[in-house]
């Protein structure tokens, strides 16, 4: 081999080693974690728990940044337009998928690379502390007062709204949907008996439940919650709240479309390790949300399925 050939081969080897080392080094700086909701909400709380776990476990810095507005579209828009290098990620949710289904945002799922699911939040039907004792009692009350029973939801045209509608359909009557700008307002009015029921996450109602101001009477899910094991699901009572297909209130990590496969794999590794930690699973149990190990291509498929269902539901439930 000539001197030139040996030199070229050596340079190629050095370049390959340098490239591999650069890939292995990701991340070399902090990662922005954009949460498209207000500080203090359920998604923000989960993100900050992950922030601590990732720092403790892996010595990687996640910088949580709240960018609320437009049902998640403002914050996720920042993620979609960020450089596809893995240093900006965000929290996607089913609420934004509902906005996409109704063309209320210009965002599309193709603008994102899906990393890992953080949580699923089985929504619950709640009533004031001295309201109907059981789900059957509440549905009987709705039947006695068709079109008059009020159900509060944080926002409208979202999953909470869908399940309020499914509750009314289980009773076979109409109802009054009362949308609010957030869960804290819903729970306050429910405790004050300004509304007769509400559809909320366990994480945003647990304090009032434990204090005895309100009570859950039904879970919109396939399994009972560990945090409230005595509360039955609609399914076990014989009511189908998923007539149009699978539908979950979920939060998941996304990156911009087009990130390199090795960077995606590294992000999946970082977030999966934190999400699957005993600490985060305990945190989930304490706050009434579920944790699983859905990542990468499997998460792609789940998002497509939920989006397909929401596209169908949008024409049947939401009114514009």
TrEMBL record:
CDD domains: PBP2_Bug_TTT (cd07012). Keywords: Signal. Gene3D superfamilies: Bordetella uptake gene, domain 1, Periplasmic binding protein-like II. The keyword Acetylation does not apply. The keyword Signal applies. InterPro entries: BUG (IPR005064), Bug_dom1 (IPR042100). SUPFAM superfamilies: Periplasmic binding protein-like II. Residues 1-22 form the signal peptide. Belongs to the UPF0065 (bug) family. This is ABC transporter substrate-binding protein. It comes from Bordetella genomosp. 9.
């Amino acid at each position: 081999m000539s001197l030139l050939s040996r030199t070229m081969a050596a340079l190629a080897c050095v370049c390959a080693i340098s490239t591999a080392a650069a890939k292995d080094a990701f991340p070399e700086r902090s990662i922005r974690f954009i949460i498209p909701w207000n500080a203090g909400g359920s998604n923000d709380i989960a993100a900050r728990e992950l922030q601590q776990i990732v720092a403790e476990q892996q010595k990687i810095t996640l910088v949580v940044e709240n960018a609320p507005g437009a049902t998640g579209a403002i914050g996720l828009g920042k993620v979609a337009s960020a450089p596809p290098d893995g240093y900006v990620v965000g929290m996607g949710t089913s609420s934004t998928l509902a906005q996409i289904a109704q063309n209320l945002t210009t965002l599309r799922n193709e603008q994102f690379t899906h990393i890992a699911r953080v949580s699923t939040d089985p929504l619950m039907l709640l009533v004031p502390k001295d309201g109907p004792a059981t789900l059957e009692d509440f549905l009987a009350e709705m039947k006695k007062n068709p079109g008059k029973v009020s159900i509060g939801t944080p926002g409208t045209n979202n999953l909470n709204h869908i399940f309020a509608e499914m509750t009314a359909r289980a009773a076979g009557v109409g109802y009054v949907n009362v949308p609010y700008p957030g869960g804290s307002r819903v729970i306050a009015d429910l405790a004050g008996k300004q509304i007769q029921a509400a559809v909320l996450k366990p994480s945003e109602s647990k304090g009032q439940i434990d204090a005895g101001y309100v009570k859950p009477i039904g879970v919109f899910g396939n399994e009972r919650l560990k945090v409230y094991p005595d509360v039955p699901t609609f399914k076990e009572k014989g009511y189908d709240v998923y007539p149009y297909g699978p539908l979950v209130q979920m939060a998941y990590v996304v990156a911009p479309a087009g990130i390199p496969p090795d960077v995606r794999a590294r992000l999946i590794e970082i977030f999966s390790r934190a999400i699957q930690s005993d600490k985060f699973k305990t945190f989930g149990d304490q706050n009434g949300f579920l944790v699983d190990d859905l990542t990468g291509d499997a998460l792609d498929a789940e998002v497509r399925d939920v989006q397909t269902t929401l596209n169908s539901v949008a024409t049947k439930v939401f009114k514009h």
